[in-house]
Amino acid sequence: MKPATRWLPLAVAALAVAVSVGRFDNDWVFDDDDVIRDGALIHDPARLLDAWTSHTLVASRYDPGLQPVDTYRPMPLTSFTLDAMISGRDPWAFHVTAALLHVGCALLVFAIGAFWLKSRWAAFYGAAVFAAHPWGVEAHVWLNGRSDPLALLFGLAALRALLEAERRRDRWRWRAGAAACLTLGLFSKETLLLVLPALALMPGPPERDEPWTTRSRGRLLPLVLPAAIYLTARTWVLGGARAHRDADMLLDAAWNLPWLLLDGLRQAAAPATPHLRSLRDDYAGLEAVHITLACVALLVIATLAWRARRRFPVAAWSTLWFFAPLVPVAIISTVLWPGFGRYLYIPLAGLAWALAELGGELRARPAIRAALGALHVLLLAALAWSFTESFQDTERLYADAIAANPESAMAHGFLGITRYEERDLEAAIPPLARAVALDPDEHRYRIHLARALNATGRQEDATALARESIALFRGRREEAPYHLVVVNALREPDRELALRHLDRCLEVWPGRPDCQRARRFLLEGEAPAPR
After folding, report:
1. CA distance 382 to 155
2. What local confidence, expressed as pLDDT, does residue 62 receive?
3. I need a labelling partner for 527 at 20 to 30 A (CA). Which of 71, 83, 173, 469 fits?
4. What 3-state DSSP class applies to 294?
5. Taking the model in full, what pTM does it have?
6. Which pLDDT tens digit goes with each residue over 502-511?
């Protein structure tokens, strides 16, 4: 190693910390409150085993045990529990761990790039892009985004161990290490399953010119065994494979997928000002022309990568690493869930290696290459610094999202819901009303707006919105709470009308507790009807 390049890993680590050092001024945001700060599991070390024997949202303060979601990620919950033992409900220990995870990922991106490429400076450029990328902030600054950095850290460690196994004589020891790391990565986030084909096909050590079939056979057991262990545990804990049962949603996801992949590549290569996004809002207006253009663009990219596989093997292979983990995000694009950058965190490692190889082959004077690379990294770092500040608190996060996209129903709606939960009802009504106007089919905006109107003495408006929502959600569970809104909005006692609404509430949602309590009050006077 040349003396001039010995400091490069230290520079990568320093950059990874510096671009988001403002994180230590940030508070809990969005689901950090439910899962970490007020989590049902995080602050009770005696329940740590539950993280390994339950669905992921067992950590939530709501602990929805009878309605598990389709995720099983015990490693992030375990790390949260360890952080909570250090700083309790203060976020500083969680921020320290998140920063260390990001540094570890950046260093491994550099080490793997240096392993493959002739130039350590090229590897440094790629790692610097990864460390400073603004969309990555959503994974390593948003505390509940930890599953992505954890999964990537262990995935990269497994990748490096597999490469070392092909260069050393004690290859089975390295393969065993790769299998152990990959297992921990899968228990961090299931998305790593989609990286397995890339790991099987990745370029080997540059000094060993072996056909990919030979390399892949040697990697088979270290890849298959962790996948089998994880899938067995997941199936046991979740009670089955739990594939998504909504066929229409799967069709919508398949429709969005080409645009999502192209959108991900565009934002990774040349990011616009990052902000909290809702892919469902952003992709709501997609038409056939958009999907057709995206498919053509992806076909061109795949063709170029295939044709360049001999001259630029790392860059060509990196397209597989980049696109594969984005595929399940197509499901996220059909539901109301904020986030985009956190899903790019694992793919960004592939972008870093591709840029490192292509940048190293750029036909320009070294000084010009260095200046262009430095300018690129500085621009990314400035965006990352700004995005880090957005996570200071929930109000700032949604306000910045609205400033970046005034038509974001999610940003308006979640801002209103946050204010509602903080009992700032008058301030909650305007953003909730705007969210309903932008996305009239979303139940969460409607029910919070109706309740806020009712609680601030606007019973007529609450009743009108509730009746409109009853018609909109007729026959679905979402219909039920609006009947209770109508009952609570009655200015004059009308026992028969109230009972009809409460009976209908229990008809569409049998056993709903709030409607049961209200009905018992009307019939027996056991408890006051909740408002």
Report:
1. 28
2. 64
3. 469
4. helix
5. 0.91
6. 999 999 999 9
